[in-house]
Amino acid sequence: MDHAHDHPKKYPRIARPVELLRPSYDVVVIGSGYGGGVAASRMARGRQSVCVLERGKERWPGEYPSNLKEAAPQIHVSGALSPNDTGRLRIPVEAGDPTGLYHLFLGEGQNAFVGNGLGGTSLLNANIFLRADPRTLSLKYWPEEIRDDPSKLEKYYERAESMLQPSPYPASFPALKKLDVLQKQAATLGVEDKFYRPPQTTWFHEDGPNSSGVQMKTTTLSGQDSTGVNDGSKITTLVTYLADAWNWGAEIFCECEARYVKKHPTQEGYLVFFAWHGAKRDLFGKENVYEHLMWVHARKMVFLGAGVLGSTEIVLRSKERGLRTSQFVGQDLSGNGDILAFGYNLDDEVNGIGKEHPDPARPIGPTITGVIDLRGEDTAKNPLDGFVIEEGAIASSLAHLFQPMLELSPGRVTRAPLSSIPFRTLRSITSKLFGPYAPGGSVEHTQTYLVMSHDSNQATMTLDPDSDDARIVWQGVGRAEHIAEISETLARLGGTLVQSPFFSLLGQAEITVHAIGGLNLGRATSHLGELLRGDDGAGVHEGLIVTDGAVVPAALGVNPFATITALAERSVEGVAAKLGIDIDYATKNAQLDLFGSPQFPVQPKDDVTEAALIRARKTGQVGIGFTEIMNGFVHVGGEIESFGVAASQARADLQDAQFFLSVNAFDEDALLGRSDHPAMLTGTFSSALPGSPHMVTKGKFGLFTVDERTPDTRNLTYEFDMVGVDGKMLHFSGYKVVNNAAAFSTRDIWEETSTLYVTISDGKLVAGKGTMKIKVSDFVHELATIATTGANVPLRITGFGRFGAFFARQLTRVFFAPFAPLTDKGPATRTLTFAARPVPNEVISVTASDGVVSNMQVWEPTKVIDGKVLNVLFVPGASVDERIFALPTIPLNAIEYFTRAGYRCYAVTTRVGLTPNAKLQGGWSIYDARLDVAAGLKEVVRRAGGEKAYVIAHCAGAVAFASGLLDGTIPARDWIRGITISQVFMHPILGTVNDIKANIPLPSAYTFLARSDWFDCVPQPGLVQHAFDSILKFYPVGGRKEICSSASCHRSELAFGRLWNHANLNAATHDHLDEYLGGVSMKSLRHLTLMGRKRITSRPDGTPLIIAPVKDESALEPEPVNPALENLRGIPILIISGSDNVVFAPEGTDMSYSLLRNTFGAEMYERVVFKGRGHLDSWMSSTCADDGDVYDTVLGHVDAICRHGKLGTGEGGVAAEKREVSCSRPVAIVTPPKRANGTTQ
């Protein structure tokens, strides 16, 4: 395979995105080296659902670094420098990417180097597959089940061989200089018979599939094994066990670092907590990544195969969190007696520096191809004195640093004769002048020695109390006398013996590439690797098994991975038998299509999500993602409705909350183009709720989606189900509100885009509520996490730009909202239309006394209560019709509400409403409209056989109704049971802005400019009308929260004043205003203005309809009743007002209410002010039907009068049919429920 980093589609991906992680599996495997790979493969073949968690990334041949520039970013260093091995001075070190390919752990006395990636150390080892000496396996360190008969491991060595297919370097392959030199050196030592070519996991065959069905390529003999081979010849666990596990249904997840394991609190099995390093989450800092862990439930088993350092650290951390273990956990680690040394500047050419593309005439070979095996009884009577010497190759990424490191290293030993000094000097100069690959140079004459022997197995791992990270103290690493003998042997091989140059660089500590132990068989684990519960026969943690090098109880004196693999095969077979799991070893894979799907899946596919991922990978389409942290307070419980109050209470109760979520849109086109702007959420939510932390997968994120509840408002939405560690599911619903209220204010835009309103429910009841916010520092990190995916760099850059532009447009639209052109979509461009609801059962014509014919709609009740149907007449105001009561854009409108309550509903649209009559004869006064109300009410009474009706009148309809009552046109006591008046009655006091306009001759000015006595509330063609709309966008609308882009809204506001609080209208209603608003004649406006200035209902000529009676000062009788009011005697009246009504001030309804009470007494009258409501939103809001809101309050009054014969209404919030009425109830202030941003829901 070519080494081509810019073509990600060239490489398969068997790991799944963490977004597809399921909450639970039968088996969770931690790590993907030899032990983890065995467990994953065998359990998948046992038809268990398997999850593999690997800290590193997935890389395939062609993606490994080939030079220092590429390798450097992949180095992760952790631990602590401890100079001179005293332990008194420790310098903690944590540097580099924790998912980097190379992990250097700094211990006290010795350091360890391990691989990190999907495939573990098998990606970087030297491939040598050698069995342990049976004498070593018989030592006291091993459990009796093995030491008594080491041959029992042969079965498992053979099983490992069948998968890994090791073979020696073929004699038919080109001769290798470093191999020849090692053979010559064996002769120098007099042990040439101990030299041989060991079996190794390098593909020496023709290109073709391996044992697992993965296509392999013949080695190019590059010598790059220790940094990753790009030629496709290295037989790693990635291309064997893991590929096999994938093919049998295992689900693999990378960049997932397991931290600890706990028993599941309510179910069988274990919870594995892990840090997800993907989606650039590390940019938020180590503390956030490791404090907000994700988790997965293993129902049956957890296999720890994270390597010696990883698995031991996980168990230690688990122990600190309550998991009972043996006291020997973390004890008796070994460096496997590793010694790294160099024979610098030999007389013989070695050619031991790796090359990515070597000259076929000068191949380097695999890293190791030969061994001098001195473990036999004839060379080491004591097995602890046995060791092996293997030659090696230095990867090309270190080539140019190699000579300085060797020549500057202390403690060099030279046994060469003085006569060789000139030649050795010349070779050194040659390498310095012409580089490490110069023929005849000292570097090309340097042999690498990797020695494996036996150390004292006395290293100890503990956890640093401050960082919770591993700390290893290597005590007596080198058996001094034995090590001295080995060093003397190496010095006899020629050249200058240089002990590892890393010795001085890394705090005078040796380095091992074969750390083993820490969870030793027989001491910390059973002979099958099951974690012991404690000491003294306390038993094992069933289903918690260690399968990596951590179980090896002592140094092996040879490359350990063959033994580790064999032990893992033995352990997995043993625990599977305990659970009755039948592993299919026999079925062979066909050649695998790693770009396709597994042949033997276990879990059902997530069709929608998985299909999106597959499509994104195959097409290389642009995707984008980012990560976000929000903090806040979420109150546990659902008794508090207000988000702000809930958050305050949570703060007082120390109920803080935080989420750490990554947003991923696999298709940027959908994210930016679709109306719901979808993306996926993955991460954790932590709070005071039971079951915390909660896992979030496959959550839904919406980017600037239209808020259907409020006009000109966008939301950033967070909707997801989340599973707690107790196994219970909760639903998280959160949204940020972005609207025009933030115009011209960067502070408010920040507040809107950084504040999340949260509701958590259990499916039935609210479990929590509160708010969360983004800190500025976290937002900076969030910006840094934005990343795009795509087939190539130009696409990714373009995608980044598109996302940034989209985000900027949304915020710019809000910031400059007042300058936005006014628009109305109009029927031709709407994608959503609303049919009349409910459809009238009948439309009848009623003729007023002056001959004007009006339409009146009739809706029959949907149910009959007590066998009786009662009648209610609705009277809408100016420029509107019956649809303000039968609005189809809200879930439940007034007509539906009342017909469901058993009432036959009528609605008459007067001549000043949305009707063709409004334009007749140059328009009408409000006083004229009383005749239409009278005609409609008369017909209702006639159709009911003389039975009185209940009247609900709004705005100008209420003023017209009042006019008819006051001048006697409407015989109230003959026709009316009761009345609800909405917003204005006998005292039309104008709002502040309308009062100012009333003193300006606007109607006359408009007539002059427009050459018309008619003003449309919807946009009209023509230059004057367009100019009007352009000016209107600067018309004062109140606070910034009332800014909108609807021309109809602004036009109606100019005519009447702002008709609603925008927060109370949903988007559908606001978008269709041009359908529900008509126009107004200048005659109607002049009459309204006249009454507003006089603050009294009057005739068009200004004559008041309420005239105070003349009182005889000498009379002893009480003051007589105003004769105009006498018609209202005995009729119960409910008056409702919106506290924020700016068309007619609420003061006007208070004056009418007070006049009625003062005239007739308090018993018949009630006034309710709805806090937060304006004018028309008292009828046109989607929340008017809520308990205790407008419809409920009015129906309570209607029921009390019509069904129960009571006066007044019952207590708010009680179901209407159950209400008891207080005749002396005072003025009520009703506050509807509020949405998060302070607006009515």
UniProtKB/TrEMBL annotation:
InterPro entries: AB_hydrolase_fold, Cholesterol_Oxidase, FAD/NAD-bd_sf, GMC_OxRdtase_N. Residues 108-262 form the Glucose-methanol-choline oxidoreductase N-terminal domain. One of its GO terms (molecular function) is oxidoreductase activity, acting on CH-OH group of donors. Coiled coil: none annotated. Its cofactor is FAD. Keywords: FAD, Flavoprotein, Oxidoreductase. Gene3D superfamilies: alpha/beta hydrolase, FAD/NAD(P)-binding domain. This is FAD/NAD(P)-binding domain-containing protein. It comes from Exidia glandulosa HHB12029.
